[in-house]
Amino acid sequence: MITLKSKREIDLLKKAGNIVYLTHQYLRPFIKPGIKTIELDKLAEKFIKDHGATPSFKGYEGFPYTLCISINDEVVHGFPSERILEEGDIISIDIGACYKGYHGDSAWTYAVGKISEDDKYLLEHTEKALYEGIKQAKVGNRIGDISYAIENYANKHNLGVVKELVGHGVGTKVHEAPDVPNYGTKETGPKIRDGMVIAIEPMLTFGKPDIYILDNDWTVVTEDSSNAAHYEHTIAITNDGVEILTGE
Question: What DSSP element (H or E) covers 152?
């Protein structure tokens, strides 16, 4: 069931989203060659807790860490570890924070030092696909309008659309209805209504979109070992327009 949020709830979701945004900004200077990904996880957990929130992902369905850290051909749900970032890597960091029972959720993909032109292209156009989706998040539209906009943009730029993984509603649970696929047909799916809060999150690949899950039962990687990018914002949609809750 899709729950519509009151102004009070959106204000709390905005506070949670701002903590997620600030955590991303805090981590940026540390994302460089030589750092272990587990160190980023520890930094993020302390930062989130110091801001009066708790990590949304740690313990969620057994996930053991604060961050999802996915490198190169890892699409999502990568585990922080002793792995050291290297020059030329790309790293997707997915962050969730819970503030007074309400969640913020946002992912971003970062360059580690100098990256290839192909990876620059992948990052640029995955981020732009996110904003193409956000443009369609209007009261009266349907979820399929968001999905179509993302898929259409990705197809125009020859990027693979991962279909098994989708965006979602956000509220007192980090994952709520409705699903927000990154592919679809215009004028289909649930109608967008005043008070809807969703996470839009294109996950695109530089090669084929086929994926598989590693033995840890979490980390999703591309089948052809092509690199992947992941960009996500939590947004609130009201009769006044759309507001990004996980950005400035």
Answer: helix 143-156
18-31 pLDDT, tens per residue? 999 999 999 999 99
Residues in Cβ contact with 62 at an 8 Å cutoff, skipping those fewer than 6 apart: none
Strand order in the sheet with 160-161: 160-161, 203-205, 228-230
Q: Is-contact 90 229, C-beta < 8 A?
A: yes
**Taking the CA of residue 25 as centre, how many other CA atoms within 13 Å lie in the half-sphere pointing to its CB?**
9
SS3 48: helix
Question: Torsions phi, psi of 105, nearest 5?
Answer: -150, 120
H or E stretch at 68? strand 68-71
And the tokens for 15?
């506070």
Task: Flag whether the pTM goes above 0.90.
Answer: yes
pLDDT at residue number 248: 73
What does the alpha-carbon distance between residue 123 and residue 92 come to, in Å, rounded to a whole number?
10
Main-chain dihedrals φ then ψ at residue 129, nearest 5 degrees: -60, -40
pLDDT tens per residue across span 66-83: 999 999 999 999 999 999
Can you give the length of the chain in residues? 248
